[in-house]
Every structure is written in C-alpha cells, then in structure tokens.
Amino acid sequence: MKQQVCPICKSIALYIFTSKHLKEIYECKNNECGHFHTPIVRSRMGIQEWSSEQLQNLENISEQEFDIIFPRDKRLLDLFLHQIDMKKQVVLLDYGAGSAAVSRSFKKILRENCVIYCLEPYEIYHEIYSKNGLLLLKSLTDLEDAIDLAYLIEVIEHIDDPISALIELRTKIKKGGLIFISTPIGKRTENEACSWAYDTESHVHFFTEKSLNLALISANLRPIMNQFYPEIYRSGPVPIWIQHARKWLSNAYHRIRGLKPNTGHLVGFTGPVD
After folding, report:
1. How far apart are CA 259 and CA 246, in angstroms?
2. What is the pTM (predicted TM-score) of this model?
3. Pick the CATH number of 3-270 from 3.40.50.12160, 3.90.25.10, 3.40.50.150, 3.90.1150.10
C-alpha cells in the first residue's frame, strides 16, 4: 500500500482515494492526528491559477465578490472586534488575502481606524490593494508593526508547510493578539456530508480538529475551541440576536451531547502561548 509521512505529526500516512481533481489523498494513521493531505509535487500547488479570461476581468470579478459578501463581512468584523482590544487604530493582517474582498469591507467600515496588511503570493491581486487603502505585504519579514489580529479565512489548507507558516506568523502577533482560522474539515470520503474540502483543486491539506490543533501547538499557539460561528457564512440578513441565539443553542447542544458542531468547517481563535 502506498504511504507518505504525515506533514503534521510525521507518522505514517496511507493512500485512501484519488480525488475528482486526480490528486492522491493520504490519511495519517496516528489516532491523535488523523490528518489528510495530498503530496506536494510542484511549486505553487496551493495557488488557484486563473484563466486568461478571468485575468482580463479580474477587477470586475473582485467588485462582484465584494458586493456579495459585504453584508457577511460586517457581521464578521463585529465578531473580531468583540475579541480584541479595540483602540483608536487596530492593526490587522489578511493572510492569504486573494482579492481582499474581506479586507476591503473592513477598511470601508473602519476607515482610518485601521491599518490592514495583505499578504498574498499571487501577484495578480497586488494592484487591487493600493486602490483600496490596503498595504501590500510580500513577506512577513517586511512587517514591522505588531498585529492585533490576523485572519486566515479558507487559507491554511493551501499552504505547503502550515506549521512553518504558523511559527513565522506567531512572531508577528502582539501580546494579547489573536489569529482567526477557518478551514474545511477533512473526511475519509470525497462526498461526505458537510465538507467541501476536496472541491477546490488548490487544497493540499484537509485538517481534522486534532491535526489542526497539533499544528497550532507545534507552532506554540493555543489550540482552537472549534465552534459554530454564523458570522463566517454568507446567509441572508438575520437579526443579530437571532444569530447569537442560534450560536449559543448550537454550541450548548453539542456540548451537552458530547458532539462537535456539524458545520463542515473548523473555525476558531488562537494566539501565542504566554
């Protein structure tokens, strides 16, 4: 049977299936990890390449995405600001910013009350940042400000070496600062309900709750308390009290039953271990 070394815990990982994108998927056999991954066979595997037609219409596509998710992002920003010390000016890092639709929303709302850095390896997006008051960051080594909050929204599954990336990121987070992570849950089959982990060709890691927390602990970060956060989803306008009631009831139900929230995502806040 074909095997690999698990990129998270270094245990044996065995081949389990080939995805719709013709990638071999391996499962870590360590019960305390259970990570799923596909071998890195070329550079930039985790970057979603765009067609020439998409590249020509990049700005229009970016505008459409911004308009669609702006209502969601207002809720997401409220969630973030409740977690950190909001002062006159907050310093944020959009790690794997892409078209920066999320950060553009935050900048539109906070204006001069925020500084937002965008770290993105795919050069096609870089011009968008300066047009929207965002600061391009080509490497974390260039970052001089300490970060109040960094957000990796559907990003960590694209990173070749997530533990090394988290170690580097931790050094840029100020004392008391936070990192927000969301990533689709890895499953043993491609079509298992509530997971879209294998739907995107540029995903190279498919985390379990255990493997994500092992990666965080290895980077000297706190494990996440995986919860249901309605703020990360694009559902239509729902009164804030209903959102929080749903969140409280869902989390309470799963705690009582000893279950994990069935959302298809791992979501939570972490930060440097004191």
Report:
1. 16
2. 0.87
3. 3.40.50.150
